[in-house]
Amino acid sequence: MTTENLQRPPAEVRFADELTRLREADTGDRPPGWWLSMEAARRFIVGDESHGISRKFVGDVSLIDRALISLATSRGLMLVGEPGTAKSLLSELIAAAVSGVSTLTIQGGAATTEDQIKYSWNYAMLVSEGPSTRSLVPAPLLRGMAEGRLVRFEEITRCPLEVQDCLLSPLSDRVLAVPELEGADAMVFAREGFNIIATANTRDRGVNEMSAALKRRFNFETVFPIADFATELALVEQEANALLQRSGVKIAQDRDVLEVLVSAFRDLRTDKSDRLTTVMSTAEAVSVAHAVGLRGWYLRGERGSAADIVDCLAGTAAKDSTDDLAKLRRYLEQRAAKKPGPHWAELHGARHRLPG
Ligand SMILES: Nc1ncnc2c1ncn2[C@@H]1O[C@H](COP(=O)(O)OP(=O)(O)O)[C@@H](O)[C@H]1O
Ligand SMILES: [Mg+2]
């Protein structure tokens, strides 16, 4: 695959060099079917400065250990949490480390069907030669089972319940029936290395609606927002600068501007009176920081400013309700005015740029 010009290549391509080095130096025991040892997989995710492995997920290391252990058992792994807490990123990184590929992915939604999960048919061939392994078109679940790899199921709770339940026998009996085929081909047995990582947002239709039978087949792990201000700021800075570089912006962001942005996000996420109904997640902060940098560079040829934050916030913060816009306006008028320094003053000064 040529990876030039791709907007976002998968983790195994973005970090191909790190993965190769980890695998070459990997002396640990690997669980059956795994591409890396557990120890190397963990280092790929949380980083290891002395070996030039970048930190990709910020947070509790013991969560990574529990997640990896779950995947080596016969239960699936369910990552739950607020939107924008890096559940999808984590599942991608884990799949890249454990299986060498993160692209056996099913995106859950109201219209997800069993065909998109298990397999479908090449209809031209089905008509001309009937059902056969040649006319079968494997979907991620069948491929993951046959190849012994991790399958990612994103936002599983957005799928209809009966569709979710098609994971029951792959998870418990490790077999997928293909009743259209005959003989040995009618049963696909999972190879070592196969398992499922699902993610679910607590803001969507909840995991409590999921069938008890399916819940029993997963270990649940909650991914929490980043607790510490300095850690969140450092992550937003690193991610936003990487995005800006890829967007052709030649200067890094102003740290003081990012500091204002991240504290405003934290206020709007947690404060009782200012809390918005829209989720002001770290992922949203990264995306606003990216937009702020783009405005500065492509509109004026300089770094993004605190005033740019106001322009970029409106589209992020006022999605769910018009109350949010009013709250945001009040925040910029009152709270921002009381905070120290020229960047807060600029943020306050730009409050009239909010629409409406
Ligand atoms: N703890 C974290 N570690 C690393 N990146 C994080 C973290 N929390 C949020 N992010 C940022 O959010 C982005 C990922 O969000 P995503 O995986 O789509 O979240 P979710 O699936 O939980 O909605 C990352 O690319 C990163 O920029
Ligand atoms: Mg996600």
Automatic annotation (TrEMBL):
Annotated ranges, domain AAA+ ATPase: 73-228
Q: SMART domains per the record?
A: AAA (SM00382)
- According to UniProt, the name of this protein is MoxR-like ATPase
Q: Name one Pfam family in it.
A: AAA_5
Organism for this UniProt entry: Actinokineospora alba
What is a GO molecular function of this protein? Answer: ATP binding
Entry's InterPro entries? AAA+_ATPase (IPR003593), ATPase_dyneun-rel_AAA (IPR011704), CbbQ/NirQ/NorQ/GpvN (IPR050764), P-loop_NTPase (IPR027417)
Highest taxon of the source?
Bacteria
